[in-house]
Here is the input.
Amino acid sequence: MTLFEDRVSDVSDAPDGEIWPAPSNPMAVARQLIDDDGLRDAEGVLTVRWWRGAFLLWTGERWVEIADRAIKARIYAALEGAQYWKPTTGAPELTPWAPTRHKIADVAEALSAIVHVSERTEAPAWIKGEDQGRMLAVRNGLLDLRTRKLFPHTPRLFNLLALPYDFVPHIPYPARWSKFLNQLFADDQESIDLLQEWFGYILSGATDQHKILLLVGPPRSGKGTIARVLTALVGKENTAGPTLAERLHRRRAPAVNQRRGQPDGRPEIPGTLDRSPSNTLYGHLKRAAEPRRCQRRRSNSLPRPGAPRELVGAREPCADRRATGGAAGHLGLGTRWTRPAPDRRPLP
Here is the structure.
């Protein structure tokens, strides 16, 4: 063992401050950051990832995008009092790590390389270990949609969404909700069944059907109540409300996000949904679209435009409709699933 290796391995004589690799070796610094800063779970699986131009952290239920500044702040905090052995012509010297903007940027770049997930990965996906099939993240675990069994949460599943409530296998019959739907659709059991099917499709997180469900009706005909119930089921943080024009003309709205984006295209953490009065998008959105790159965003849509009363044969809406109010015949559902025409415009 050389003198330098001996001094590095023997840290008992070192002054206050942890011993880290030299700033000239950012990959080693990033690996020690992962080990020392708790960026693995109890099974040793990484809880930080770099995917499609952004860092994501595991929350215990799902992966959440965080700003680059948040990661850099964490690196600054870890290295603020750190030291490293600096080789000299004589004996190596214990030198303050002294983090700077350029040193931290090098470590962050190295960290992104170590925890990188392929851009071709489509969430949700199993990124480590055996593929266990489609799972739905709920508050009390991962629900296997085939067997209805619950499994523990794990960062091996790269999921960006989690429903904000527990899965309960046996629940009472929703009598109040059933009464509400019967008031809206009268004897139209086909529309009620279709709505139930759509709710299940939305909750599953699937987008492979490439379908849009259209709710048509005048004001106070039940569209808003259905939308609010579906928002509660999906979770407000998993919904967005861009206008139809923004959906059709994505070049004019590059910052459409789970919430209304900030000017640079990144999401706002606090705030309310920007909900159009004519339509609501229930999006299983993958991540923010940023001006510097184009991202595909998968989502399920529930437009709810108003319609002239004479077209749906509705009576006057109730003056004071409460939780289950509304008049039968006000609301119409498109019972045929129609694939929209593909957008063949070149990407920006």
Summary: The two ends are 57 Å apart (CA to CA).
